[in-house]
Amino acid sequence: MSQHTKAEVESIIEKAFATRQEGNELLKAGELGPALLKYHAVLLALRGLDSSLSRLYPAEPPRFSAIEEPRIQEIVDDKDEEKEGETKDEGSQGEVTAASKIEEVRTAIKNTYLNSAAIYIKQERWKRALEAAQSAKKLDEDNVKAKFREAQARIGLGEINTGKKMLEELQKSNPDSAITAALNKLSIDEKAREAKATAQFKGMFNRKKGDESKNGDRAQDETASSAGSAAGKGKGVADAEHKGAASTSPVTAEATNQTQA
User: Could you tell me which residues the TPR repeats occupy (predicted)?
Assistant: First the structure.
C-alpha cells in the first residue's frame, strides 16, 4: 500500500474541509439528508490520517505556556463553534507541526460528528445519534455539546433517567438555555405520560366494573329463568296428579259398591 505524499495529504484535508462547509450550509438550509452525505464523505476522508501527518510534518518543538482556564462552552444547535484552518500550535517560525495539524483534523472530525448527531436527533434516529455523540466525545471527553447530544439520544432511546441525570449535571456545570429547554420538555413529556397512564388505568377499571355488572345481571336472569322453569315443572306434576286422581275415582266407587253387595 503506497503512502500519501505531503501534497496529497494537504489536498485531502483541503477538499474535506470544503465538503464540510458545504454540509454546514445544507444543514442550515434544513437539507438534512444531503448534509449527512457530505459529512459521511468528510469522515471517510479524514479518519486515519494521523499516521501520515506524524510522518510528514515535523515534531512540535518544546515550549512553555501559561495554564489556560477552562472556558464555559455554549450549546448552539446547527452552528460550528470551531473554525478549521486555524492552527493554534505552531513552531517558533510559524511552521505547522504534526501536533497542530493532527489537532486541526481531529477538530474537524469532532465537529462533523456533532453535526451528524444533531441531524440524527432531528430525524429521531436515536441509536445513530448516540453513536455520533459518543464518537465526538472520544475526541474531546469534556465537550459539552457532545454530552448534551448524548443525553438527548439516550432519552430518545428510552433511557430517560440516565439522560435526565446527564442534563442536570450539565446544567450545574454549564448553565445553558438549550439544556433548560430540554429539561422543561422532559418534564412536560413525563406529565403527559403519567396522565396517559392514569387514563388507561381508569379505562381498564371502568371496563372491568362494567363487565362485572353485566355478569351479575346475566346471573340474575339465569336464576330467574331457572326458578320459572322449576315452578312450571312443579305445576305440571300437580296437574298430572290431579288428573290421575280424577280418572281413577269411578273405578274406586265401583269397587266399593261391589264390596258392599
Answer: 110-143
The residues of the chain scoring below 70 in pLDDT are: 1-2, 60-95, 208-261
Q: What domains, with CATH codes, occur in the chain? A: 6-60+75-166 (1.25.40.10)
Residue 102: C-alpha distances to residues 40, 68, 89, 185, 252 (Å): 19, 20, 10, 39, 130
Q: Half-sphere exposure of residue 84, counting CA atoms within 13 Å on the CB side?
A: 24
Calpha distance 247→23 (Å, rounded): 111
CA distance 174 to 146: 13
Grid cell digits, residue 127: 441509536
Cα separation, 210 vs 114, whole angstroms: 54
CA 104 to chain centre: 33
pLDDT at 85: 43
Q: State how far the alpha carbon of 192 is from the alpha carbons of 45, 184, 189, in Å.
A: 45, 12, 5
